Amino acid sequence: MNFASVRIITDDVDRLVKFYEKVMGVSAERPVPVFAEFIVPSCTLAIGDSQMVSLFGAGSGVAAENHTVIIEFRVHNVDAEYERLKPFVDEWVKEPTTMPWGNSAVLFREPDGNLVNLFEPVTEEAIKRFNGRGRRIVEVSEVCIL
């Protein structure tokens, strides 16, 4: 089994697409107006309109009601990303700090209230833990964060 994507359900696809284009530094693919995908080497972030929920079955989702998932992006420099995103982020949950497990991290809420974590392994143990995961981090100037 291969992990394919995470999908955010929203009542305002255009607003979230614009926000994540700024955060990720890539343009979304929009096959239809009610759906968008950010396809990067390590994963796909999808955004779907709440109208689509009925296609998955009754009770399968409510827009902007998530309180348990954190969307995470590994970056090269948490402090630089924090400075870059200050003009676009309205609610910062945690300014850059080193977490007990060895990652430097900054957390914020995106327009629908979902938590987003930008992190970089900074301790020797954290760097070792992430070295074998096969992900290549690409600079925003190259195309995207992940």
What is this structure, in a nutshell?
Helices cover 19% and strands 34% of the residues. The chain has helices at residues 13-24, 78-85, 124-131, and strands at residues 6-10, 29-32, 35-40, 43-49, 70-74, 91-98, 103-109, 115-121.
Walk me through this protein's architecture.
This is VOC family protein. Residues 2-121 form the VOC domain. Pfam families: Glyoxalase. By secondary structure, the protein is an alpha/beta fold. The chain has one domain (6-131): 2,3-Dihydroxybiphenyl 1,2-Dioxygenase, domain 1, CATH 3.10.180.10. It is 19% helix and 34% strand. It contains 3 helices and 8 strands, in the order βαββββαβββα. It has a 4-stranded mixed sheet with strand order 1-4-3-2, with helices on one face. Strands 5-8-7-6 form a 4-stranded mixed sheet. Strand 7 and strand 8 form a beta hairpin. The chain starts with 5 loop residues before the first strand and ends in a 15-residue tail after the last helix. The model is unreliable at 138-146 (pLDDT under 50).
* Strand segment count: 8
Please state how the strands of the largest beta sheet are arranged side by side: 1-4-3-2
CATH superfamily: 2,3-Dihydroxybiphenyl 1,2-Dioxygenase, domain 1
What is the element string, with H for helices and E for strands?
EHEEEEHEEEH
Q: Any idea what the shape is?
A: globular
Mean pLDDT, nearest integer? 88
If you compute it from the alpha carbons, what radius of gyration comes out, rounded to the nearest whole angstrom?
A: 16 Å
Number of domains: 1
Q: Beta-sheet strand percentage?
A: 25-35%
What is the makeup of the main sheet? 4 strands, mixed
